[in-house]
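User: Please check token order:
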Amino acid sequence: MDFFLDASLYASTLRMVTPILLAALGGAICARVGLFNVGLEGLILIGAFSAIVGNHFTGNVFAAVLFAILCTLIFSMIFSFMSIHLKANVIVVGIALNFLALGLTTFSLRAVFDVKGAYYNKDMVGLPKWDVPILKDIPWLGEILSGHSPLVYLSFVLVIALQLFFFKTVTGFRLLASGENPTAAKSLGIKVSRIQYGAVLMCGALCGLAGAQLSLGNVTMFTEGMTSGRGFIALVATMLGQSNPIGVAGSSLLFGFMDALSIRLQGFALPTHFTMMLPYIVTIAAMLFFKDKGYMQEARKSNESSR
């Protein structure tokens, strides 16, 4: 019981959940406009690597985050151009993007830093940790909620902002209409393609932040394939949350907790490879119990709405 009352476990959960939550929110935005973006894994990986590159050349962590966003926006533009303008299958484009990101980051790691496998510099500065006034002094709760990077707090602010945007603003209603019934939306004068481009770019920016948190927030280094399936877990979180920001946050927290728990269990003499399976076992279990087939409709609709 004391194990589950340990504040550091929940603090670790907040750090672990941030990349998943940011990417899942991006996936939710794409799903809402009828584009099923399976390229989240690749976008996060591009964001993680470009954040390290930006930090290496500028020496400024915030410039590094902006550079990560810029690079993922370029890849998002490729995705949107292929799927919206050229009307390619979004699933195929997303999968191709994932493989492209994996190969490109591996090649660039050797080309830029002349290393294989991982890059680490002891002088590299990661994202700052914010101690929230008053909150940090609250026993137990302060240990959980205070002392995180700005991107951790931003991710939860974005959950509320997106919830209000989707269901309380005119632009949000237009975005939802573009995904629900693009033909009717076009008849009302809504620029569906323009909204879809904007949604994909927003998704790219969020994945850039997710990558920056992964390589500069959770750790201060980059390793080949360091996303380790977090983009696909974010995709499942999007499905479980029904593309609703609050629902996405809830499902992301579940996966983030299992991620933190898997690391904690490594200290109990359990095999590392066994504990690392926990988040993926939960992902498979979630899909088995996931009765709603709405995500399949979204996948089918994605090939129709962009046409």
The chain has 14 helices and two strands. Residues 41 and 232 are 6 Å apart (CA to CA). The longest strand covers residues 118-119. The beta strands are 118-119, 222-223.
